[in-house]
């Protein structure tokens, strides 16, 4: 049987999972997602729902690939812009790759797979790049 996999492209500037704010209401502590993280996850969830029409949840052990394509900084020289587009110059600034991954996992939970604890592996290509078409490409597959 062929491995099941889902490929999703979330267009627009990538947003990493931000640090939650905590509040207490009626003696109960709760974490509140930052607005931009929450908005990005809602958008990614909508894109995933469209991709999942007529498809069933991925099940069992899953592997995840997250490719983050950030906008190119305006202050890069022409030479560095070329290197960035070729993929030889990649973002080394914050946010961390892991924060993008956490946002993607949260967004797809309950849409593509039941629980993100089923993700047992990450696969290549994986990481951050520059692009003149910012987006996040996510591939999830059963292993």
Short summary:
This protein is α/β, with parallel strands linked by helices. The protein is 27% helix and 31% strand.
Characterization of this structure:
The chain is an alpha/beta fold. The protein is globular. The protein is built from three helices and seven strands, in the order E-E-E-H-E-H-H-E-E-E. The chain has one domain: 60s Ribosomal Protein L30, Chain: A (2-Layer Sandwich), CATH 3.30.1330.70. The longest helix is centred in the N-terminal third of the chain and has 17 residues, at 35-51.
* Helix content bin: 25-40%
Q: Whole-number radius of gyration? A: 17 Å
CATH third-tier fold name: 60s Ribosomal Protein L30, Chain: A
Distance between the termini: 11 Å
Strand content: 25-35%
> What is the succession of H and E elements?
EEEHEHHEEE
Task: Calculate the mean pLDDT score and round it.
Answer: 93
CATH architecture: 2-Layer Sandwich
What spatial form do the alpha-carbon principal axes imply? globular
